[in-house]
Give the backbone structure.
Amino acid sequence: LGGVFRNIFGQCWTTLQEESDAMWRIYSHDKQGVRVKSSPRKLLSAIYDTTHPFREMSFFIGQVQYAPEAEIKAWFQDARFSASIVLDQSGRNQAQALLLKRLEFRHEQEVRLLYKFCADDYSGDLPTDAFHFTIDPGAVFDELLFDPRMAPADFQRHAEEVRQLGFRGP
C-alpha cells in the first residue's frame, strides 16, 4: 500500500486547548517551537484551491481515530479494506486510512490536514518529501504561543519575524 500514499502530504494539528509540557518536550526539542492556534476551516481554506481540477479528491481535513496497534494491522491486512484504499478514485479512503493512529498517541488529540498531489495537473518538479504552499498568516492563524522555555532574545527575534510576515494577532 505504500505507493498509494506516496503523493499525499500532511500536517498534524492538536485540538488540545491547554498547554502541555509533554507536547513542548516532544515537538520542540530545541526550545524554538511555536504553537499556532487556528480552526479546521481556516486550515483547509489556506490550501484549498477552488480552481484545482482535482480539488474534490486532493484536499482533506479530518480528526485522527485512535485504535490498538493490532486492530490497525488487522485492518490493513484485510484484503477488502486494502482494496477499498487502492481502488478508491475519490481519495477519501486513502485520507481515512491516514487518519488512523495507535491508541498510545490519543493524548495528542490530532486533526490532520492532507493534500493528495495529482501529478497529471502539475508542470514543475515533482515534490519528494515536502509540498510547499503560500499562506497568509494573518488570515490562517488566530494566535501564536512560543515555547515557554525559549530564551528571551530568541523570543524577541521570532516575534519580530512573524510580525514582518504580516501576523498581527496575539
Summary: The mean pLDDT is 87. Strands lie at 8-14, 34-37, 59-63, 65-67, 100-102, 110-116, 143-146.
